[in-house]
Amino acid sequence: MESLPREGRQKYRAGRPAARVLPIVLGCCLLLTGRAWGAARQFIPKYVDFSGDFGVGSLYEWDKVESTSTSTRSDLTIQEGLNVQGLGYIYSPLFVSMATSVTLGLQQEQLDNNGDKSSYYDGEANQFKQEFKILPSHPYNMELYFLRATPMTAGTAGSSGSVVIYEQGARARYDQRPWSSTLSYIKHDSSGRLSSDNQSLLYNLNYYQDGTSVSGTYNHNTGSSSGGAEDTIRDMYNLNFIKKLDRVRFNSRWTHDQHDQEESFFGAPDASSFLEEDELYGEVDVELPRNFDTVFSYLDSDRNSTYVRETGTLESFTESQYYNFRLHHRLYKSLNSSLSAGQQTTDAAGGDMERQNYRLAFDYTKQIPWGNVLAGLWDGLSFIDNTGAPITLFETHTIDAGLNFFTLKYQTIEPSSIEVRIIDSNNNDRAILLSEGIHYLVTPFPNSFRITIITLPFDELLDPDLDIQDYSYKVDYSFIPADYKLRNKDWGSSLQVALFDSLITPHYAYSQSDQTVTDGWFPGDPAHIKNHSLGLGFNAFPFTGDVTRSWLRSNTTDEDRLASYVTYSREITASTSGHLSFSFEDVQTTQYELGNIGPTTSLSEQFYSAQAQIQTMLPQKNLNASLATNYTLYEGLGDSTNLSFYSTLVWHVGLLDLNLTASYTSVDANIGDTSSARQFAMIRFMIKRKLF
């Protein structure tokens, strides 16, 4: 082999270190890349548990409404789906835990809208949900999720209920005593007949330590529905403070609620409303020596509203302050006495009012050989100074089960100023203005007015399968303009004797109230009222009940009332229980002429009610079932009948889960010249089999 020249050998020797370094560098690079890849692999999601099931669900609705015309609609929706769920983590279960759910589904729908039948095949029943929990076991953690859902929506009989929902949300938590905090954001979009776009931001901060509690909440909601024709914005603030000392307790809160709503439908005039309400409340409770205690409270309420409609703009405000004081004393275990005083001032659009009230009350309890005696005596005095016609805003009412009316709270109301709104809790508490004569009637009633709901605005409610009693109502009104000062003196007593371990309990009560106009002109007649009630209650297991007769006599109203009820409750077997109840109430009312409102009228009302429920629970067979029925009948200012059935069945057997819910409601109402009837039936069925 020919040797290299001297210069070549020197260059070769000089290059030998570089030749050795290159493989080392390449090896290190490969080694580092392998380590980096190994570290990165730890952040690849790992699933540790899987489950799957196949299910079939269906929803059937039938809705028949009879009024000026008859409408019959039905809707049958069926969904089939294969669902797979996975539980896992990223890096470590303590770092990021996750849950994934994927459903491949099909949907069919059959509609009948007043004889117009149609069928749909909709493959958009696929669903997906992904959840992440970051640092799930730490005091500070975060949850993230996003989903796509295709629920079977109720309340859409006669029109397609196919809905696709997209929702994203995040929630950050901190919980390290004495502090805790939560920040959450949810964006909800739905398509279909009930299309809407809603966003919600909620933040709260809490502090608790050594008897001190401070909390604050902010909630911002925006909603848009009907293709942007309806927009609502609502902001709510809340602050609470509680401090407990040895014998003193402080309690205060501040709330602010602002609700902005706009409507812009094609072919209809634009409308908007702005409602704002502030409340500041404070209370001090003090335990005094010798079994005395006292409470002082303060409430400041500020309410404003602006309604913009085709007829013009209406602006109203009401500012009220309430001061209340109570001194209480307990003598041994027998006698409780209390002295209270309060003052209310109201400044409103159109006028103002000031009210002062005082009350002294005694309650006495005594054990006797056959039972115990409870006696009470109270005396009250109040003064009212009214100027002009104050407006009352946002008086909120609900309707008791089986009824279709409520009564306003005050006297001397101007009936033409009454406006009633229904609150749609399913649509960001949207307030819908009702029309008198179409949706409700206004009727004079003892010292006030009764609002009778005839029908609901089904086309404007988001989920109209609810009943009249399931909603709340807000009423605005003003008083008849008048300047007067009124003095009201009232007192009363009560006696109740529970005998033979409360087997029978006779009871009696009496109250009297007298109003006197001390200055100015009072619209109507000052009331002079006497009220007696006499009754007998009984408790003989499994029966309980009561019968009470009461008589009210006044210069404006006479009322005779008979109220009774009986219940039966017991366990039929070790796993089955039953409940029955019946009630009846008869009210005879004579309303004398009240100012210029109307002539003397008489009204006879009867209320009938019956409920039955049976429930069985068989844990050894994984079966729960219940059946309930309710019947109410009202006769008087028109008549109304309500009959409903509700049943459920939940059964888990082997790998199968069965869930069945069925309900039926029939409502008939005849008020004045208006008659309406509604029958509504709904059946939900779901069967699911676990695959793995």
Radius of gyration, in angstroms, nearest whole number: 34 Å
What is the terminal separation in angstroms? 75 Å
Oligomer: single chain
Beta-strand proportion: over 45%
Low-confidence stretches: 1-15
Let me know the number of strands: 36
Query: Mean pLDDT across all residues, rounded?
Result: 86
**Shape type:** globular
Q: What proportion of the residues is helical, as a percent range?
A: under 10%
* Sheet with the most strands, sense and barrel status: 28 strands, antiparallel, barrel
Structural class by helix and strand composition: mainly beta
> DSSP helix count?
1
Give your account of this protein's structure.
Among the domains are: 1-41; 405-477, no CATH class; 556-692. The longest helix is centred in the N-terminal third of the chain and has 36 residues, at 6-41. The strands form three sheets. It has a 28-stranded antiparallel β-barrel. With 692 residues, the protein is mainly beta. The chain contains one helix and 36 strands. The radius of gyration is 34 Å and the shape is globular. Mean pLDDT is 86; it is low at 1-15.
